[in-house]
DNA sequence: TTAATTCATAACCCCCTGGTTATAACAATC
DNA sequence: GATTGTTATAACCAGGGGGTTATGAATTAA
């Protein structure tokens, strides 16, 4: 069976290195070179991670000349919300924390 | 470096088989035997998945005689909320959907 | 007490994944 | 045009992870 959107999303976020890249891209758009500097791994490794993040819909690329700019895609996390909605009953205990999150986002 | 709580949680949820087990346990408490029937994999494989889910704090076990009952732990998903809070800015676009979720949980 | 059931662990295997280096394509600069 | 810089891909490799069967410990049933 082909992997679901949940699979690709969870798997993409499952790797710490990949999640670190995503978190950097959440703050600002960066080129592959900029991402490689400070990532502690080679440039091809970074490119592979970016391809996976892109495949999961977490990241968008913007080629410009010889460099490619990457940025996080807000819509990429939507399946996470969908999955949580499937398990609302589990959330009762965490409700107040989620409420806090919403309040902070609202202001 | 030792893996963070995020790592263990995301990795635990990253495997489809494991997520399926977790989803079944979200609905009702089940024994290893009950989980194995209908999982499509061997009993030792199920036990290993359960150990990983337990290690991630997603599941609680309750030994009773020769069988062990497992159930989902609501608090296990808390780190997911924490992680989302770290990236609130990314959420602007998904805000209304999260709002929907909260409304449905409130009723 | 003997047999059957349930579960966890050990030992093993294969494949997938995350890393590497090498290289090619393309763009910018000299 | 030649060179340098940026990125993606190919080829490869080591390790980890998810599966298996075998087995033992503990509990229940016969």
UniProtKB/TrEMBL annotation, chains A, B:
HTH arsR-type domain boundaries: 1-92
CDD domains registered for this protein in UniProt: HTH_ARSR
Keyword Phosphoprotein assigned: no
Any one Gene Ontology molecular-function term assigned to this protein's record: DNA binding
Record key words, sorted: DNA-binding, Transcription, Transcription regulation
Pfam families reported for this sequence: HTH_20 (PF12840)
UniProt xrefs under Gene3D superfamilies: Winged helix-like DNA-binding domain superfamily/Winged helix DNA-binding domain (1.10.10.10)
Transcription is among the record's keywords: yes
PROSITE patterns: HTH_ARSR_2 (PS50987)
NCBIfam families in alphabetical order: HTH_metalloreg
Protein name: DNA-binding transcriptional ArsR family regulator
Source species: Sphingomonas leidyi
Record lineage: Bacteria, Pseudomonadati, Pseudomonadota, Alphaproteobacteria, Sphingomonadales
């Amino acid at each position: 069976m082909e992997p679901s959107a949940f699979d690709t999303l969870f798997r993409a976020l499952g790797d710490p290195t990949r999640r670190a890249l995503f978190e950097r891209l959440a703050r600002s758009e960066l080129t592959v070179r900029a991402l490689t500097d400070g990532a502690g791994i080679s440039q091809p490794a970074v490119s592979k991670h970016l391809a996976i993040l892109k495949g999961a819909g977490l990241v968008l690329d913007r080629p410009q000349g010889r460099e490619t700019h990457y940025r996080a895609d807000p819509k990429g996390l939507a399946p996470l919300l969908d999955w949580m909605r499937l398990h609302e009953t589990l959330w009762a205990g965490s409700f107040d924390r989620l409420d806090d999150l919403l309040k902070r986002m609202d202001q």
